[in-house]
Amino acid sequence: MTHFISHDFDSELQLRVERIRIMMADRGIDALLVAGNTNLYYLSGRIFRGYIYLPIEGDLHFFIIRPNDFEAADYLTYVRKPEQIAAWIKESNLTLPKRVGLEFNDLFYSDVERLRKIFPDAEITDSSMLLRHARMIKTPYEIEKMRQDGLHQAAAYHRITRLYRKDMTDVEFQIEIERALRLEGCLGFYRTAGSLMEINMGSVIAGANADNPTPYDFAMGGAGTDSSLPVGANGTTILPGSTVMVDMNGSFNGYQTDMSRVWALGELPELAHKAHECSRRILRELERIGVPGEKCSRLYDVAVEIAKADGLETYFMGHKQKAAFIGHGVGIELNEQPVLTPRSKDLLEESMTIAIEPKFVIPSVGPVGVENTYVVRPSGLECITPFPEEIQEL
User: Fold this and answer.
1) pLDDT tens digits along 314-359
2) What pLDDT, on the 0 to 100 scale, is given for residue 249?
3) Concatenated DSSP letters for 324-383?
4) Which string of DSSP letters, residue by residue, matches 314-327?
5) What's this model's pTM, rounded to 2 decimal places?
6) Residue 278 and residue 272: Cα distance in Å, rounded?
7) What is the spatial distance between Cα 13 and Cα 249, in angstroms, rounded to a whole number?
């Protein structure tokens, strides 16, 4: 039998609960009933099947269906079904909540309707964005987890050059990179928000495949190898005069970092080098201005202005099909809040973690550009994906 909440995580949990309760109070929410895996992990430090009841006052309580190997504790109750939660609230002489938050965006409709019936007299509201906004600001514990992620991801990337073999396809190259990541300790799994993003362990985009549009909101796209997952490597042979962008999984410990780097085979046209260096200059400028209080939309606007000033707007964030962002939050999920778009209303806050990816697609050559994961600090953006940014030779 094991403890459900470790002693080391207990104080960390209190920081997260306090942040959520401030947001609950602002929205007039009396209690949350959490059921989605991402938020269960955020509030417990583990994945389990069950629910977390978080009232605006008092202790949160864990209702466990599986696994069955946790030691008994005052904050934990085993249940067979969620309907038993209502009985527990009554038996515990707790005040029934008048307004309850459920994760509308993270659960199936049938699950939401079932949980709604636990509180027949309460107003039910959506708490999905409340929890996503709570997770935007990372604790020191979370930042350290992500920093370790970045170090592991960089260690695996250092092996990439020697994984290439002559006449290799992008799929074969990706398989070798995946192996290097798994040997480094990668979990091999992206946890993403929403139902509209699907991807395997990441993308290795070579040559003209970068210009193949995809239904997903990615800058690089790629045709994929099958219509059931039309994104990423498609079997293209890596040819002289082309680039390969590696944008692979950085998930080693429940958190993620996002990093893209470019390799090239043979000589590239000057346009490719110009665009790549433009990406790096964009990052340097955004690192400088990315301080708490800055508009997320301004980071997007500045990136576009720099690309336009270099005459590269045709290729920026895609060529045939463009992405309408230049970065996004990252943490437990790959695609967290905020999103760096021209219409964003969000402001940067200290200890946000964001991935910024000013990328270009050069027709017939391939993708160029750099993606790093950053922590928002009072002095600007701190990079936690330490790997050389220059185009490297295969």
Assistant:
1) 999 999 999 999 999 999 999 999 999 999 999 999 999 999 999 9
2) 86
3) S-SEEE-SSSSSEEEEE-TT---B--TTBEEEE--EEEETTTEEEE-BEEEEEETTEEEE
4) TTBT-SSS--S-SE
5) 0.96
6) 10
7) 27
